[in-house]
Amino acid sequence: MAVIVAVLLVVSVIWLYLKGREEKVVPHLESRTPFKIESRDEKSVTLSTTIEFRNEGTQSAMIVDAICKPQLPFEQYDGMDVRGKAEREGVPREDDYFEALVIEHQQSANLVAKVTLTARKGLSLEEAVAHMVDFPIEFIYREVGRNPMRWSIARMILSAEELAKLVGVELVKD
Question: Among positive and negative, which fits the CA dihedral 75, 77, 83, 85?
Fold first, then answer.
């Protein structure tokens, strides 16, 4: 009986030791950069914001995939088509592929959320933005380390007011 108790005790200690040694990637949305214009033409504008992802755990973590998903269905506002893209800071890609990265424990990496808004229904960019609504943008990322691979979501809001200010138009009250 004493042997069984000793084995259970050793297994418990090992499990507690290993459980405390894991990755913990935390997006710091409160300190993300303000949206800025990356490019613009008569019909569209591409905005970006940079988000710090910090590994607050005790082991290395890997972000193996990331997706920027604007949440603006046509039922909410059909004057604008909105698309998103996730990138590593300083590593832009033309193929929309997210290049995985390792974040050592207690280190950070910056990821960029890009959002392209394109006017629809014969509207100019300015006309479409003038009637815009606030909408959420989900930054969805898949991380792995000692824990099994999992998806997480960091959510931010792009307000109509912020967008109008960037584009240089006044919002119309509908």
Answer: negative
